Amino acid sequence: MIDVNVSNGTIDQSEIDAYIAYGRKKYPGKSIVGLDIRLDGDYVDLKYRFATQPFERIRRITGYLVGTLDRFNDAKRAEEHDRVKHSV
After folding, report:
1. What's the CA dihedral at 18, 26, 50, 5 to 10 degrees?
2. Residues 51, 56, 59, 60: is their CA dihedral positive or negative?
3. What are the residue ranges spanned by the domains of the chain?
4. Reduced to 3 states, what is the DSSP secondary structure of residue 21?
5. pLDDT at 85
6. CB neighbours of 43 closer than 8 A, spacing ≥ 6?
7. Can you tell me the distance from the alpha carbon of 66 to that of 70, in angstroms, rounded to the nearest whole number?
8. Per-residue model confidence as pLDDT tens digits over 14-33
9. Whole-angstrom Cα distance, residue 12 to residue 29?
10. pLDDT for residue 54 is more than 90
């Protein structure tokens, strides 16, 4: 279900559906959760709201880009444990 807000007038459901279809085509791979439609005479301003996407934090540890240490073997875990951690 997409939350649709229309301001400065009214439009019919078929036009709203067309704007939603346009947004899905323009932003493939993103999930639209809301649409703000602002009518201004002959012009229409569209503002799409998307679902947040989870991300994984990547860090550089002992020369490798990793998210977590669970994929390290025992030698790499020991190297990470023995490294000097600097503070500011």
Report:
1. -30
2. negative
3. 3-50, 54-83
4. helix
5. 76
6. none
7. 9
8. 999 999 999 999 999 999 99
9. 27
10. no
